[in-house]
Amino acid sequence: MSKLATVVVLLLLAAPLGVEAQQQGASHRRIGVLMYQTMTDEFVPLFAAFREGLRQAGYVEGQNVEIAWQDARGRHDRLPALAAELVRLKVDAIFAVGPQALKVAKSTTGALPIVAIDLESDPVADGFVANLARPGGNITGVFLDLPELMGKWLELMRDLIPAPRVAALWAQRLRCLR
User: Fold this and answer.
1) In the predicted model, what is the mean pLDDT of residues 19-27?
2) What is the 3-state secondary structure (H, E, C) of the chain?
3) What is the C-alpha radius of gyration for the chain, rounded to an integer number of angstroms?
4) What angle do the packed helices 3-24 and 44-56 form, to 10 degrees?
5) Is the model more confident about 118 or about 35?
6) How many CA atoms lie within 13 A of 56 on its CB side?
7) How far apart are CA 126 and CA 161, in angstroms?
8) C-alpha–C-alpha distance, residues 14 and 46, integer Å
9) What pLDDT shows up at residue 43?
10) Of 7, 24, 80, 141, which sits 20 to 30 A from 54 (CA to CA)?
């Protein structure tokens, strides 16, 4: 993910917390981060942007927001216990990174807000939301595997980088119907 996309995504994710902070004063919040993958160098810019977005919304880690990190280290069997631990810690929201973490977070709680960054799933087809217009439930976030948005993405790219020609490669995931 590019740095620009990361910053935009994470500023959007932090915005709801900022609105509430302005309404109630800068109260202490706890955010749970649930990851399937091991924290590697590729995630450093993502979480730097996450912290910056929070800071711009009035939240500073260690002052008025605590981030509870749960990393399954690539082991799916660890995710349910880690998600349950976030619920036990009474986090205000869960930030689920990737489809595996999102599936487990969704099955663990129907009450806590879940903010997802999932670049692989179709949120409707995979059952995370009812539909795009009215998702319902407790999940929001960014899902990029939506072919129906390709035209809009190309339009936005054209606006950002004027070019006479644009080419796009798309690897469509095959689904088995049973």
Assistant:
1) 50
2) CCHHHHHHHHHHHHHHHHHHHHHHCCCCEEEEEEECCCCCHHHHHHHHHHHHHHHHCCCCECCCEEEEEEECCCCHHHHHHHHHHHHHCCCCEEEEECHHHHHHHHHHCCCCCEEEEECCCCCCCCCCCCCCCCCCCCEEEEECCCHHHHHHHHHHHHHHCCCCCCCCCCCCCCCCCC
3) 17
4) 30
5) 35
6) 15
7) 33
8) 13
9) 75
10) 80
What is the pLDDT averaged over residues 4-11? 44
**Buried b or exposed e, range 36-51, using 16+ CB within 10 angstroms:** beeeeeebeebbebbb
Kindly state the average pLDDT of the residues 43-72.
88
